[in-house]
């Protein structure tokens, strides 16, 4: 697994656990780092993802639901929902990751953590979002 993919993997694990429990994000992050050590630079990258996504989860979800209405978020597996949030945050909010890279990385995470159908599902949803990238970026600039 590539280094930045490992950082995304750690971020995904933290976001998933936060989504499924009442555990504190900082505590989870620290615990996951013990299991999946990263360089300081990659720790910072994973930290940016986790603490970039968490405060705007509702906004990310509503934007995903608006631009990809064929996939109701409440029917999406929690792991897939968090993969979508990470990719969408990377290309739509942070804008430091090119959209194709964000999609490819999300598909790779889906291959590792999702069901057999997850990679194509993730690719499809993010492909729908990518069609509206500029419009979405304008609508979420304040996030």
> How much is the average pLDDT?
91
Oligomer: single chain
β-strand amount: under 5%
Query: If helices are DSSP runs of H or I spanning 4 or more residues, what is the number of helices?
Result: 8
Uncertain stretches: none
**General shape:** globular
Counted up, domains total: 1
Order of helices and strands: HHHHHHHH
Helix content: over 70%
Assign the structural class, choosing from mainly alpha, mainly beta, alpha/beta, alpha+beta, or little secondary structure: mainly alpha
List keywords for this structure.
single chain, 143 residues, mainly alpha, N-utilizing Substance Protein B Homolog, Chain A, 8 helices
How would you sum up this structure, described in words?
With 143 residues, this protein is mostly helical. Helices cover 75% and strands 0% of the residues. It contains eight helices and no strands.
């Amino acid at each position: 697994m590539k280094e930045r993919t490992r950082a995304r993997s750690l971020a995904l694990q933290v976001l998933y656990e936060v989504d499924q429990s009442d555990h504190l994000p900082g505590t989870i992050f620290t615990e996951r780092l013990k299991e999946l050590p990263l360089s300081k630079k990659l720790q910072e990258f994973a930290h940016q993802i986790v603490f970039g996504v968490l405060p705007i989860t509702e906004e990310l979800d509503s934007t995903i639901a608006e631009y990809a209405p064929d996939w109701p978020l409440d029917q999406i597996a929690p792991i897939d929902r968090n993969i979508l949030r990470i990719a969408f945050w990377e290309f739509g909010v942070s804008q430091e990751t090119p959209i194709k890279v964000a999609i490819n990385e999300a598909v790779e995470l889906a291959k590792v953590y999702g069901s057999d159908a997850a990679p194509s599902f993730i690719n499809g949803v993010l492909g729908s979002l990518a069609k509206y990238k500029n419009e979405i970026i304008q609508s979420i600039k304040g996030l």
